[in-house]
Amino acid sequence: MFDLIDVSFIIPELVKQGLDSGVYERVGGVIRETASKNVVHWLREGKTITKGHKIIVTLSSLGRATLAAADFAYMYANFEKYKKAVRRYKHKVGCPELISGMASIYGRARTYGICNYL
Fold first, then answer.
1. Neighbouring C-alpha atoms within 13 Å toward the C-beta of 92
2. Which superkingdom (predicted)?
3. Where exactly are the structural domains of the chain?
Protein backbone atom coordinates (compact mmCIF):
# COMPACT_ATOMS: atom_id res chain seq x y z
CA MET A 1 0.00 0.00 0.00
CA PHE A 2 1.20 3.50 -0.80
CA ASP A 3 0.96 6.61 1.36
CA LEU A 4 0.16 10.00 -0.10
CA ILE A 5 2.59 12.79 0.81
CA ASP A 6 1.96 16.45 0.00
CA VAL A 7 5.15 18.19 -1.13
CA SER A 8 5.52 21.88 -1.92
CA PHE A 9 8.32 23.03 -4.22
CA ILE A 10 9.93 26.44 -4.50
CA ILE A 11 9.91 27.26 -8.23
CA PRO A 12 11.98 30.18 -9.57
CA GLU A 13 10.15 32.56 -11.92
CA LEU A 14 12.20 31.62 -15.02
CA VAL A 15 11.53 27.92 -14.43
CA LYS A 16 7.82 28.63 -13.95
CA GLN A 17 7.70 30.51 -17.26
CA GLY A 18 9.40 27.57 -18.98
CA LEU A 19 6.90 25.13 -17.45
CA ASP A 20 3.96 27.33 -18.49
CA SER A 21 5.23 27.65 -22.06
CA GLY A 22 6.02 23.94 -22.41
CA VAL A 23 9.79 24.40 -22.83
CA TYR A 24 10.35 22.58 -19.53
CA GLU A 25 8.61 19.66 -17.88
CA ARG A 26 8.60 18.58 -14.24
CA VAL A 27 9.32 14.99 -13.28
CA GLY A 28 9.15 14.69 -9.51
CA GLY A 29 11.49 17.36 -8.20
CA VAL A 30 13.45 17.63 -11.43
CA ILE A 31 12.92 20.21 -14.18
CA ARG A 32 14.12 19.15 -17.61
CA GLU A 33 13.89 20.41 -21.18
CA THR A 34 10.94 18.87 -22.95
CA ALA A 35 12.74 18.30 -26.24
CA SER A 36 16.17 17.05 -25.13
CA LYS A 37 15.23 15.70 -21.66
CA ASN A 38 18.33 17.43 -20.23
CA VAL A 39 18.03 18.32 -16.54
CA VAL A 40 18.04 22.09 -16.07
CA HIS A 41 17.01 22.51 -12.42
CA TRP A 42 16.48 20.58 -9.20
CA LEU A 43 13.56 21.87 -7.17
CA ARG A 44 13.89 22.48 -3.45
CA GLU A 45 11.09 21.58 -1.11
CA GLY A 46 9.26 24.50 0.43
CA LYS A 47 8.16 24.82 4.00
CA THR A 48 5.99 22.05 5.29
CA ILE A 49 2.27 22.59 5.47
CA THR A 50 1.19 23.97 8.80
CA LYS A 51 -1.46 22.37 10.97
CA GLY A 52 -3.80 25.25 10.18
CA HIS A 53 -3.44 24.61 6.46
CA LYS A 54 -4.09 20.90 6.96
CA ILE A 55 -7.26 21.74 8.88
CA ILE A 56 -8.44 23.99 6.05
CA VAL A 57 -7.76 21.26 3.48
CA THR A 58 -9.56 18.68 5.63
CA LEU A 59 -12.57 20.95 6.17
CA SER A 60 -12.68 21.69 2.45
CA SER A 61 -12.72 17.97 1.65
CA LEU A 62 -15.38 17.40 4.29
CA GLY A 63 -17.45 20.22 2.81
CA ARG A 64 -17.25 18.71 -0.67
CA ALA A 65 -18.31 15.31 0.67
CA THR A 66 -21.24 16.87 2.54
CA LEU A 67 -22.30 18.76 -0.58
CA ALA A 68 -22.15 15.56 -2.65
CA ALA A 69 -24.29 13.72 -0.08
CA ALA A 70 -26.84 16.55 -0.01
CA ASP A 71 -26.94 16.60 -3.81
CA PHE A 72 -27.57 12.86 -3.87
CA ALA A 73 -30.38 13.19 -1.31
CA TYR A 74 -31.98 16.01 -3.31
CA MET A 75 -31.81 14.05 -6.58
CA TYR A 76 -33.20 10.93 -4.90
CA ALA A 77 -36.12 12.90 -3.44
CA ASN A 78 -36.94 14.38 -6.85
CA PHE A 79 -36.66 10.97 -8.47
CA GLU A 80 -39.14 9.57 -5.94
CA LYS A 81 -41.50 12.47 -6.67
CA TYR A 82 -41.42 11.77 -10.41
CA LYS A 83 -41.80 8.05 -9.85
CA LYS A 84 -44.98 8.65 -7.84
CA ALA A 85 -46.33 10.96 -10.55
CA VAL A 86 -45.71 8.32 -13.22
CA ARG A 87 -47.54 5.74 -11.11
CA ARG A 88 -50.51 8.10 -10.78
CA TYR A 89 -50.74 8.76 -14.51
CA LYS A 90 -50.03 5.17 -15.51
CA HIS A 91 -53.51 4.19 -14.35
CA LYS A 92 -55.14 7.14 -16.14
CA VAL A 93 -53.55 6.40 -19.52
CA GLY A 94 -53.64 2.77 -20.52
CA CYS A 95 -50.84 1.31 -22.57
CA PRO A 96 -53.01 0.59 -25.67
CA GLU A 97 -54.22 4.19 -25.76
CA LEU A 98 -50.67 5.46 -25.42
CA ILE A 99 -49.40 3.27 -28.27
CA SER A 100 -52.30 4.19 -30.56
CA GLY A 101 -51.76 7.87 -29.78
CA MET A 102 -48.09 7.60 -30.63
CA ALA A 103 -48.90 5.70 -33.83
CA SER A 104 -51.33 8.44 -34.79
CA ILE A 105 -48.72 11.15 -34.25
CA TYR A 106 -46.12 9.14 -36.17
CA GLY A 107 -48.55 8.61 -39.05
CA ARG A 108 -49.34 12.31 -39.29
CA ALA A 109 -45.68 13.21 -39.20
CA ARG A 110 -44.96 10.83 -42.09
CA THR A 111 -47.93 12.18 -44.04
CA TYR A 112 -46.58 15.71 -43.85
CA GLY A 113 -43.03 14.58 -44.62
CA ILE A 114 -41.69 15.57 -41.22
CA CYS A 115 -40.03 12.26 -40.49
CA ASN A 116 -39.62 10.45 -43.83
CA TYR A 117 -36.17 9.33 -42.71
CA LEU A 118 -37.66 6.99 -40.08
1. 5
2. Bacteria
3. 2-110
